[in-house]
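pasting for ref. prot 1 ->
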Amino acid sequence: MPHNTISAHVLLVDDQPANLLALEAVLETLGVNLVRAVSGPEALEALARQDFAAVLLDVRMPGMDGFEVAREIRARPRSRFTPILFVTAGDDPDEAMLSAYALGAVDFLAKPLRAEVLKAKVGVFVELYRSKEELRQRERRDFEQRLEAKEERYRALFESIDEGFCVLRLVRDKAGKVRDYRFEEANEAFTMHTGLRGAVGRTIRELVPGPEGQWFQIYERVAQTGEATRFVEEARTMNRWFDIYATRLGGPGSDLVAVLFSDITQRLLAEQDMRRLNDELAQANRRKTEFLATLAHELRNPLAPLSNGLHLMRMGASKPELLDKTRQMMERQIQHMVHLVDDLLDVARISTGKVELRRQRIELKDVVATAVETSASLIEAGHHKLHVELPSQPLPMDADPTRIAQVVSNLLNNAAKYTPEAGRITLKVGVEGNEAVLSVTDTGVGIGAEALSRVFEMFAQVPSSAAKPQGGLGIGLSLVQSLVALHGGSVSAASPGPGQGSTFTVRLPLAASEAAGAERNAANAAGKPGQLQVMVVDDNADAAESLGVLLDIEGHAAHIAHTGAEALQIAREHSLDIVFLDIGLPDMSGYDVARRLRLLPGMQETLLVALTGWGTQDDRQRTREAGFDRHLTKPAELPAVEELLHSAAQAKRVA
């Protein structure tokens, strides 16, 4: 700002208007604002309102003389250093001059005043005031520029950090208890870590319905004690975990809390998955060790009689009866070894997905008869009674007869092995809806509740002190489950408990007749008003496409996605009724996709169905927490899928 443009004020104090007018006439050419005061109190009021370059103060005034006014001026912080020029017309100027200088006056002028002298002296103080004011303004500008630069650096740092950062102001009720908090500041990363937009100026209760009370308690404690704290806490209403550092801003009594935080949900889920995988690997390693030991034992068992048989054949070459008996024993042992090797090969084929079903139209009752004949020798060896119940109507199926016979035979063999001598085995076949239901019930050793969930696992064998050790590798029931699943069916186990027998139930789809097919097509045509918009999300293209074909056959609109990103895009473009969502996707987990789907408009009522190979209670609990409505274990049972579609379509037609 140019020097001469800085505004300056001079205060003229005199009880005589004529004297004030004379002073104004002399000083008006200085280019300053001249302020009048006709009394001491009026002068002090003017000095309280603004700053002056100089004060021309008459000594002799009624009520409050100039010396008293000067004392008040010097006593006040704002005007303590304001230049005072006394003006007097007294008879003894020397005595008045001494009093004036004692009060801090910068000059003492006696009347009559000389205009040039007065103008020059006042002009010096005006210039001094303007110089000081110019310096002060320059310093202020420099300070503001430095402050602005610091603010820019702070803002750049504030927005560049990856962690979320915000400043909270606690909101208290009438009793002083924290019931809410308002976001005063937040960086860009805040939205990324919380998913909350437009948070500044709003409270957490406005942004998140029903926030947990522990957050208020933690922040209130930080504000009260002033002690910074770091903690990990779950925000259940947001389905996120946060790593948080909180500290108070300001001194005691401040309700401002600074919070630096990160969303660690994915990290915790990854750690949980890692721990789960470690447990599974440890369990798999234990089972592998047990399996190798069992395999070595099972292979050694026939080797000993085979070796003995060769020795007997050399010794008894001239004894036909001995040779025939030895040959039969060796054939049985070789058949046992062949059976073990066949089971191992089947496990390898199923594990690598190389099993090819040779489907053909079969009659289930004929296959059951073949399986019973295959297992007859083992059942008879245990002196068991076998009771078979078959329905009168035909049971046509599109299946691999060899594999279905293997399923039934394995169940019968399992029952015979784990049932004490002279037990009872019941094989029952029935029809429920469009499924054949085959059950094998025995009076054997039974299965404990804790072992039921593991009975179909590879190499699993039910421990029982009441039963004698049984041969086998513990893969028969696992093969049953895999082969049944390949046929689109399901298998389950039930037992009242140890020593009370068990029941294994297999459900297999029956072949639809032409009449049933026509009836289904008619039903699909009639169901057009209840057509569903269904999305299938699976990185396995064949699995997704096959389910999509089923949806088309049922008359529903199918949308296929192979990644989480594709699923979210389809959900934004279509109003979906059902989503079949695979948990293991290449770009993000199905749990994350489910949480994000629930946040999209119109997706709160959509039926989310989890498709996963994990079916434990913990897995089901985890899918519920992620927002899924149903949990289907892979491979999903077609009847369950059809029932779900039928219920949803009926509900849509009613709506």
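and prot 2 ->
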Amino acid sequence: MYKPIALIILFLSFYLSYCQVSITKEPSWIIKEEYNPNAVAPENSLYGGTHVLLYTEQVHVDREEAYIKNVAKAVEYSGIQTISSVVADYDPSYQELRFHHIDVIRNGKRINRLNQQDIQTARRETNAESYIYDGSISAFVNIPDVRIGDIVIYSYSVKGFNPIQKNKFSTSFVLNSTQPIDRISAHVFSKNPLHYKMLNSDLVADLKKRGGINHYKWFQKNVPAILMEEQTPSWYIQNETVLVTEYDSWDQVIDWGKNIFTFQEPLSQELQQAISEIETNNKTEGERIKSALSFVQNEVRYLSISSGIGGYKPNPPNKVMEQRFGDCKDKSVLFATMLNQMGIEAHPTLVNTSLKQELSNLTPSSKIFDHCIVKVVDENGSTLWYDPTLTDQGGTYANTYTPDYRYGLVLDQNMSDLDTITDFRSNMIETFSTFTLEKDGLGAELEVRTHYYEGEADFMRSVFRNNSKDLIQQELMSYYTDNYGRVSSLAPPTIEDDTIKNEFLLLERYHLDSIWSPSVEKTNTMNLSIFPNGLISNLSMPTQLQRLTPYALTYPFVRKEHIKVKLAEAIRVKPENVTINSDYFYYDFNSKYNAKEKIIDLDYYYKHQNDHVPVSGFDTYYNDMVKLDQNIGYLIFTNNDTLTSSTYSLGYSLGTIIGIGIIIAIPVGLIALIVIFVVRYNKRKTANPS
């Protein structure tokens, strides 16, 4: 009985979505932009074998319409694939999609390729694996018989703005691409005056006013392709970008947010009971904050269903409590409501997980946020930040880890600008590895104790709670087998989890059948190579030595590694120390030898000083990395004839080791186990807060 009803509902949803896609004439208000069919692409600048002859994006604010026209030429075979598909996205809850043209120009002849029966629709849902469903629909047309030299022209418009914006307009336009563009333009028509800001460009808007309508125009010709560089920070905006907004200041955006995030309904009995239990079971304010956070994080599952106004407006706290699921807005409002009911100051706060520090350089807008957290002010006046979408977080209320978001828009009537989100935690991982070498063989016993702190502890706690012990042990064994050959486990991996201190310990013990390998350079010599695996797995040597953009670094990032090698016989050892105090990282290595105990101790410390290297400092950073590269490995070798031994530092190429992907990687099994968690943890970058 239920299946037919579900099928009917599904059919109707797709039918209604399809009915919102039509073929019409181009709007009368647009500016007719011409293209040059004989334009020649700059040499060595084609990406995907395509030359864009014209791209124009035009918005009429008062009509709530957006128009796009694209004209591109297939210059190489690879370009055929690029221009043979037309895709347009829209939200069926408040928008209609109208195709105007899909034409192929071949030898000066125009061939119409736009037919209603060729338009297909499908739900976009690119973040479904992260439990994010935004309700958008993709309409796409596959163009048949496209050849080299053909010019494909398409245009369409989308009617309807999200009503949650309360008639306050803001948007952005990108004026260059990874493809060369012969002509590109952006137009905005608005009865009200607008503010705009250029990023990475000195272009000035051409402003005209006709019939009471302001017409803003940005136009460029012969725009070269830009090169996207490796390891560019997510917050760095490389394109020439126009930011347009009707907001005069951030306090107007705060007023908008306060309006849609405020609910006047009385709290439900279920919610009141949950709050009462927290107050009864926790005597101090700090304990109540932490208990409420744990409840929202772990008892209310994450699920984002955010089509239409749901992309911006949270559900009422009573509804979230009843359904026991919600997105970041829902969970933040519920958490803040619970604290407010207990007399604790708390405010939902909008953030952007990618833009971070760049957020303060942008124009005020309600559309640039993709996540929501909570600001709390305790009884001592201390400001605390919490992310209710995280789970399994340890620590007290005063030291709960919050990701590095940098800036947030606090929905507090006493605020008038962005607030700075400060966090002083280091996210350290500290590893203690002990190799006990066999006296009459090539094997060794290996004990590894890895301590995870703060955010890293939260991360590992979730990994172990969401995977079986058998699977974890199997994958860890696979890792050591790949690196050392025959390996046997001396004991199952064990963990110790101190949730109050937020420290997580993983203990492993193995027997390695053979840890030595014959020397390639010297006959009758065996080598034992020692690496700080946890550190090297997070380092990489830049491959591009000339940069135009900053170089991203993991931040905060602190690694300590202590390696103890218990030898079977005495050897000659020279103590060593290497310190690199760079503007961008600090590295310290010390080795010492206890001749009586026949033990070598290797101690490594590494810390990133910042989250990026600016272009001006890249040469210095690279040179310091080369120095680090030359001092990060340690080699012990034994001559089988004379039975004498010595040690010295060995410079391994980070690029080579990482390329080989053997001993420097963190356990392959752990990588497999945490991939799903990483995706869920990081992939929140939708167009709206969710």
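Residues 2-19 form the longest helix (18 residues).
The domain at 253-419 is CATH 3.10.620.30 (C8orf32 fold).
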